[in-house]
Design brief:
There is one protein chain. The protein is of the alpha+beta class. It folds into two domains: 50 residues; 231 residues, Uridine Diphospho-n-acetylenolpyruvylglucosamine Reductase, domain 3 (2-Layer Sandwich). The chain has eleven helices and 13 strands. The strands form four sheets. The protein has a five-stranded antiparallel beta sheet with strand order 4-5-10-6-7. Strands 1-3-2 form a three-stranded parallel beta sheet, with no helix packed on it. Strand 6 and strand 7 form a beta hairpin. The protein is globular and about 60 Å long. Bound molecules: flavin-adenine dinucleotide. The site of flavin-adenine dinucleotide has 31 residues, from strand 2, helix 7 and strand 10.
């Protein structure tokens, strides 16, 4: 039961509210697609909400080219990522992840910041952002901004590096260093829509003019408590020609990916099934 709700419209308003709520328990609310589910589980609990949905500050809402990359405000709707032409051409993995999330109705309200701050191993957009080696921009009640690599943001299932006086402001994606990339989000679920992944794989592999891989961004969804970036598999690909990998190379790559997976068995799939599917979709990158 929501008993108190604060709805700042500007960054200054938000900071004022953050300071006022210092030491008190509260939830941020953005699109509420996850939060209302949590509230439903404890209907009698009194909840205080700092509602971000009316914020219009450009540091919190919108997609823009910034310096050597792209900046996406935390309150940007998943639908805006799904229909962005710039993201489609530069980071297909991110646009495909956004398009695969839930339904068009959910995508119109759900936000990128909510997807990250929920810290679910099945977060589709979060998985793509791990593969893109994004940077998290976190704002404190004092107005200080800190930037951390996304791999340091997730601390466990539903646990992040956010401190009690901080809000997630946005995400920065470094621009591509090469002219060519092989980039996609592969999501396997039990049905086509409205379903979190059974397992997923995000990849964003950059190649030079000679098709030599210089950077391989990879991330595994629903495969472990966090969203792993399989560093050894990424390093293995570096320096190799993408169209010249031997069957042995692909076997080694698949085994290196599997080293980072520690899936669970649940109502949607067994751990064994998840692992087999992950290996198959890892191979499919090179088909
Ligand atoms: C039917 C259904 C299907 C779904 N399918 C998918 C799916 O296929 N793939 C998928 O990845 N997800 C799915 N989801 C989950 C959900 O839609 C996403 O995680 C969504 O991106 C959450 O965003 P939100 O804005 O609604 O977050 P909210 O529900 O508003 O917030 C989620 C959490 O993040 C915190 N938070 C939000 N914004 C901030 C901020 N700026 N700073 C600090 N903390 C913040 C909140 O306090 C809360 O703890 C589904 C949900 C539903 C209901």
């Amino acid at each position: 039961m929501i008993t108190e709700i604060y709805s700042p419209k500007s960054k200054a308003d938000l900071l004022e509210n953050l300071n006022r709520l210092s030491g008190k328990s509260f939830h941020f609310g953005a699109g509420y697609t996850d939060l209302l589910m949590d509230f439903k589980q404890n209907p009698d609990q009194e909840e205080r909400v700092l509602n971000l949905a009316q914020m219009q500050d450009p540091d919190f809402v919108g997609i823009r080219k910034q310096g050597q990359g792209f900046y996406i405000g935390a309150l940007t709707k998943i639908a805006r990522i799904a229909d962005s032409d710039e993201l489609k051409s530069d980071f297909p993995v991110l646009q495909q992840a956004a398009q695969s999330l839930a339904s068009s109705q959910i995508r119109e309200v759900a936000t990128v910041g909510g997807n990250l701050c929920t810290a679910s191993p099945a977060g589709d957009v979060s998985c793509a952002l791990v593969a893109l080696q994004a940077q998290c921009h976190i704002l404190s009640a004092q107005g200080d901004l800190r930037t951390i690599p996304i791999k340091n943001f997730f601390k466990g299932v539903r646990q992040t590096d956010l401190r009690s006086n901080e809000v997630f402001q946005g995400i920065f994606i470094p621009e591509n260093q090469e002219k060519y990339w092989h980039s996609a989000f592969v999501k396997v679920g039990t049905r086509r829509s409205m379903e979190c992944s059974v397992v997923s794989l995000a990849y964003h592999i950059q190649m030079n003019d000679e098709e030599v891989i210089s950077n391989a961004g990879l991330a595994l969804g629903s495969a472990a408590p966090l969203i792993p970036f399989p560093e050894k598999a990424s390093q293995f690909l570096k320096g190799k020609k993408i169209n010249n990998l031997s069957p042995g190379d692909i076997d080694t790559f698949t085994e290196l990916i599997a080293e980072y997976a520690n899936p669970i068995s649940d109502i949607r799939a067994s751990a064994w099934y998840r692992m087999e599917v992950l290996k198959n979709i890892s191979r499919s990158i090179f088909e």
